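Our working data are protein records whose layout never changes between entries. Instead of coordinates, the fold is spelled out as a row of discrete tokens. Here is such a record, shown just as it appears in the course material:
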Amino acid sequence: MGRWSRWRRRTNGRVSGEPVALLHGLGCHRQTWDPVVPLLNGQREIIATDLRWPTRWAG
């Protein structure tokens, strides 16, 4: 993902199956998924990304 995004992985250590990647929409950020994460935590590893927007990230 590198310079075009930031991401966070969340797990409680007792996961099974494939990880779930959560992508936000235009003008949003990875915290958009915060209400959903507790519902999935414990079932799957969760990867939430922050896509880079020039207006959000200077430099």
Observations:
- Residues 20-49 form one domain.
